[in-house]
Design a protein that fits this description.
The protein is an alpha/beta fold. Helix content is about 25%, strand content about 25%.
Amino acid sequence: MEKFDVAIVGAGPTGLACGIEVQKRGFSAALFDKGCVVNSIYHYPINLVFFTTPELLEIGDIPMTSLNEKPGRTEALKYYRRVADHYSLNIHQYERVLAFDGSDGAFTLRTQNSAGDQFCYAARKIILSTGYYDIPNRLNVPGEDLEKVIHYYREPHPYYNHDVLIVGAKNSASIAALDLFWTGARVSMVHRGASISNNVKYWIKPNIENRIKSGEVKAYFHSSVKEIRQHEAVLKTPEGEVTLKNDFVFAMTGYRPDFEFMAQHGIHLDPATSKPITDPETLESERGGVYLAGVIVAGTHTNEIFIENGRFHGKLIAEAIEKSLVAAAA
C-alpha cells in the first residue's frame, strides 16, 4: 500500500497550495481529484475573465502574468499547470476518493479512477479541499433531469437560434443571458426576487437591465419554474402560470459543498451557520487529523471564501500538521 504523510482531497488552487506548503516542510503529499487539475476553473465559461488581478490568484510564490489587467480562464489554467509542474506535485487526476477511515496518524483512503479501478492508500493526515462547484443546487421540479437542463454554462454557440430559459439573476445567470442573446438565442430569465441581483458586477448589471427594459431579453421576476417539459417550460408568476416554448434551460442557481461526504466522515456542521466545525487557528475538524481548506470552510456561505483568501489556508494547515507530526515523532 502506497503511503503519504498527507492526502489532499481536491486539486483546485487551494488544494495545490496545501500540497506545496506540505512539501515545503519536508513531508510527502498526494492530491486526488475526481476531475482534472483545477477542475472547477476548467468548467468555467470559456471566455471568463476573473474579477481580480493576477497577484491575488498566485500560490507557491510563483508570479502570475496576464496580457490584461485581469486574467482569463485560459491564463489561469496555464498558470496552475505551471505551478503543479514547478513543485512536481503528486496529483492523481480522475481518481475519486470514495471514502477514508482510521484515525489521526493512520488513515486509509479508498479511491476509484475513471476506468473503474480501485486503490488503497495510507496517510497520516487528510486535508479536504473539495470546493463546492461540483454539486449544483437543484430546482426540485418535474423535468429537471431532462438532458436539455444544464447547470454549467460554457459557451453560447450551440444555442444559436434556440429558445433558452435562464433560471437565476446573479452574476453567472446575467453573463450567460447576455452571451446567449448576443449570439442569437432567444433568451428568457426567471427569478424569485424582484430584480437582477445587486451583487452582479458593475459592468454587467446595467447591460442586462437594459436588455430587459428593451424587451430583447424577457424577464419574469417574483417567479419560479413549475415544470420543465421536452419543448416547454412552465413558470409560476404573479399573473398566473406561463408556458414558454423552450429548447434549453440553464439552471444557474448556485452550487454547494458536498455536505454528505463530510457528514459520512465525522465532520459536523454548525447548526446556526451550516459551516463545518473547525478549529479557527488550524482548520482541523472535530475528527482529529482531518483538516478543511478553501470554500468548504464557509458552508453554504460560499461567497465568503474565494481563491484570493482560500489560498492562504495551505500555509495555516501545513504549519499545524508540521507541529503535530514533529510532536508525534519526539
